[in-house]
Task: structure prediction
Amino acid sequence: MKFLATFLLFSSLWLPLSALALFDQCQDLFPAQQVPSTAQVGRDLCFDDFAIYYSPLDKKPIYTVEKLNGEKLQAPHPRRTNQFYEEARLPAHERALLADYRGSGYDRGHNVPAGDMTSERGMAQSFSLANMMPQARQNNQGIWAKRVEEPTRMYIKRVQGDVYVFTGSVGNAGSIGKGKVTIPSHLFKLVYDPAKKLAWAYWVENTDDAQISAPISYAELIHKTGIDFHLPLEPGESKFSKPVEQSGSASKPIVGGWYPIFFDQYSAEKLTALITNIKAGQVASVQIQYDRNQELAQKLEQEIQAQSSLQVTLSQSSPPNLPNAIYERQRITVIVRSK
Result:
């Protein structure tokens, strides 16, 4: 029976494409086992810990889904593999290739983050190119990782029960590689907490200088993407619910948008522009993130505090030492929260 199920799953990938995703092998990953509906034609792919509705035309996910909970996320995580691979379950002409991303200037951006994986198999599977989208490099390593993925994990760790997370991208900003993998113009992550009847979404432009704004509503995401996620929400206000972010023990809504300023070296021009905005009352807070270049981080901190009344927070963020990963270890990222 197991052989037959596997045969049928692989055989289905060679059938004509459909806009009806079935996910027969992994419907439990969806809220109330309700699969989203969309006019976009694709293929459904089941993995151990997540599922992907994949676009053979764009060669990237239309959306992915995970079912997470705090207990799972706080469990020991396996070592990050960084072993990207081409998805062999897809017909050759529908696959994104490693060569498509090589030299493109775009990251292989995870839809389902490797950081969510708590098993060796799940970690390995998360590096399928079927799970990737061409993502602006500083977006992927900066705002998306630190202001979308990490806050999502933090929320899930705080609450009880399962939380469902959908991730995807829309729009066409060109393509990369001989395979013409579509570069999306915008990225989204939808978070649904069934226990609290809460749903909200992050909506981020796919550029290096993108800014993080307040989460958008579930209804607005449906309008922007054309995907109905069929969340079992009560009619009315629940569809428009957004989370209240927490800092420490205080519960305060975050107002304004986040944006980064990158310093590969000292720049008086960038620093002056930031201090001007602070003095004009346009900045609520500043956090300086660094890895190895503590000297530059402290210099920026001292100058900002000397020329304004704003207290700056220093934060060291050191990625793991991996032979197959390249990090901008000398780069300083100044995270500015505007009023």
